[in-house]
Design brief:
Layout: H1 2-6, E1 20-28, E2 35-42, E3 47-52, H2 59-62, H3 65-68, H4 76-83, H5 94-111, H6 115-118, E4 131-132, H7 139-151, E5 157-160, E6 173-174, H8 177-180, E7 193-194, H9 196-213, E8 219-222, H10 229-239, E9 247-248, H11 256-265, E10 270-271
Parallel strand pairs: 4-5, 5-8, 9-10
Antiparallel strand pairs: 1-2, 2-3, 6-7
Helix pairs in contact: 4-5, 7-9, 9-10, 10-11
Length: 272
Amino acid sequence: MSTSVEQHVNSHSRPSELRITDLRIANLVGVPFRSTIIRIDTNQGLSGYGEVRDGGSKTYALLLKSRLLGENPCNVDKIFRKIKQFGHHARQGGGVCGVEMALMDLAGKAYGVPAYQLAGGKFRDKVLCYCDTPSVSDGTAMGKRLKARMDQGFKFLKMDVGIDLLRDTPGTLSAPPEMLDSRHIMHQFTSIQITDKGIGQLVDYVAAVRAEIGYEVPLAVDHFGHIGLEASIRLGQALDRFNLAWYEDLIPWQFADQWRRLSQAVTTPTCT
């Protein structure tokens, strides 16, 4: 009886009987960053896809497999609360976030609706996305790179501006030599300071970029390097004149008091 009725119904699956049977990964090659795609398989032939963020490790996803097998992927929030403890900030959260993406994909397929419908429905028809672009050492050349992005149709840009641009210029940085090569010590503990000459060089760099792309297009900046709060404030105040969209991750996210001081000291929005 039920079979004959279902012949006239758009039955995408039996969501209440859906169960996770496997988690597989594939590493993408030939892309700008290493990327890992997650595929979660089920007992009804449906698969959902997610991505461990760029530069993350496949291990962050694979270690969650034992926590997923046998679960109903439509119970997205229940599973997320179960695996959240195994995530952290930045790339260490890539596995948890990638699995959540795949679960939303699966739930949408099971019910035959877009994933945005599961989140409460569509809010807009278009989303403005920004285009990040790897930096080069010359500001004018960097501006031309960003101009090429604009020619591709992008209306919002982002680039890196930080101490990596100063390493080859004497007199721009003051720091213990071993600290300049460190990527594992939190910003405020490196003792790296940017000199007035270094600040001036970064100002000239951004000025050259703005000369190429103009001021009409929003431009955000990131990857300043492991510098402390006071150096961040000095640099931020020097770059405020360029009407930048935001300063990203000048200091680690968990130092709320430092973020408050930084945000109050500059006129450009800050984010982490």
